[in-house]
Amino acid sequence: MTMTLEQLNQASTADAARMLDGLYEHSPWIAEQALHERPFRSLAHLKHAMCQVLARAGRDAQLGLIRAHPELAGKAMVSQTLTAESTHEQNKAGLTHCTPEELAQIQKLNADYNTKFGWPFILAVRGPRGVGLSKQQIIQAFERRLHGHPDFELQECLRNIHRIVEIRLNDKFGVEPTQGHLVWDWQEKLAEHSDPGFAEKGQLTVTYLTDAHRACAQRLSHWMKDCGFDEIEVDAVGNVVGRYHGSTADAKYLLTGSHYDTVRNGGKYDGRLGIVVPMACVRTLHLQNKRLPFGIEVVGFAEEEGQRYRATFLGSGALIGDFKTEWLTQCDADGISMQQAMQHAGLCVDDIPKIQRDPSNYLGFVEVHIEQGPVLNEMNLPLGVVSSINGSVRFLVKIIGTASHAGTTPMDRRRDAVSAMAELALFMEQRAAQDADSVATIGQLNVPNGSINVVPGVCQFSMDIRAPRDDQRDAVVHNVLAQLQAICDRRGVRYELEETMRVAAAPSAPAWQRRWTQAVQAAGIPVFTLPSGAGHDAMKLHEVMPQAMLFVRGENGGISHNPLESTTSDDMQLCVDAFTHVLHQLETETP
Ligand SMILES: [Zn+2]
Q1: Residue 419 sits in which domain range?
Q2: Where among 504, 538, 564 does a domain terminate?
Q3: Which residue did the predictor score with more confidence, 306 or 506?
Q4: For residue 500, how far is the Cα from the chain centroid?
Q5: 271 CA to middle of ligand 1, Å?
Q6: Which of 173, 190, 217 is the last residue of a domain?
Q7: How many domains would you assign to the chain?
Q8: How far apart are CA 419 and CA 421, in angstroms?
Q9: Is the confidence at residue 147, as pLDDT, over 90?
Q10: Ligand 1 center–CA 539 separation, angstroms
Q11: pTM for the complete prediction?
């Protein structure tokens, strides 16, 4: 017998509490306190309200909740004294059918984890798709998290509890995130294609125009056809383009999409999510036989990550007429030029200029993307509205001091290039932290020909400085360079500086950011706005038309460019809903 949100909103407090019974293991107080927030606008609203109750309850209450959970495949399972919900979940993950060896391994992990942290290991064993993790996945998660920091692990246990509750709640309300499942499954199938050398190891790597890359293009085109797109093509650079016509022949288009190439040993959702979410929306429109007063053009960009060739944003660049012909002669690690790779793939180099879009035919560009960072995950928020894609500047720096004997040179007479760098590194950390959302990083660091017994005479390093606005970034750069000068003057060393990259920030167009904001509000979730620290295809389209992005929460601390990159089908469902909302919003705005 399932229930509805309306029933929950209208029930007496006691009845409503009974309706939510069994969500949090032996801890009905969480749902009860969340009921003060009624009426709930959505299940997502209720879920978030419960997360907030637990966040406010403090560490003791949080630990109490964690300790109210049974061990995975532990004594309670063996003696069959689990709650009905837990039995169902451990059963789905196959934990009730462990071999004696598996059982022994999991029980050892349980004991080690409990000894290290002082609470039981919690994992939402039904996983991001709700169908259950494999025993192998469970054991891997266990082993990895055993090395976590206690503060992170405590929160990670709570997040897993919220995920367990999310699935229990869906079951209670008879809700299936069917669109979320659909896009989750598409991404899973797309991830079956991986470049040689990685595929064998079960790793996902799809670089420009490899067999796996072309197989992805093929699959995307087939799915677009199934979805009911009117025109589908693989263009001159390998972008997969699907067009769903508007209600009139002269209707403008909404442009959207993201990339389907990956980094080496990357995640399944980076880029691809931004292609399949609008595909799902078009599929629904087609099933409803509905045309909007504008068309929808979904582009799976062929290249964004710059892995096989140093040609980052090739796919979206080509759409704005920024394909650089010098790229064509670049060779990959096997000596194959880009031109040869394109010919091999049947792409027509001469046609590249033709794919440049005329911005006057478009309403604007939107892109959904997995966050690739920890912010939404920490805040228990499934969606976030992007305010800007950060502008960045990169430098290579060389500090030159004097190499001298490490034993005989007194401290006050040294010209130590590394100490100068270290002082700068700490300044960069402090200076960036003063701003909201500025970041500064020394990612490469080298003491050429250094020796253990020599005061470093030279130190080379990189600096990467980013901020949501160019003026904010430039202010950080100005302070860092002034500090570099001051440190060098004081220490009697000198420096050489080379600027290697400068990319302007891409602030979201206010009207488009507002549409995402309204879509998130409509989902019943608090609106949270954040800048994107990473670059995206939207940066390129930004040069010719208004754009705004929506982020979806990543699991596992928001890790990305890593096989652990993950998000749930429930979050993907909310993303599809938000995209649909933007389409309807545009429909009402278009005359
Ligand atoms: Zn990406």
Answers
A1: 391-504
A2: 504
A3: 506
A4: 26
A5: 4
A6: 173
A7: 3
A8: 5
A9: yes
A10: 12
A11: 0.91
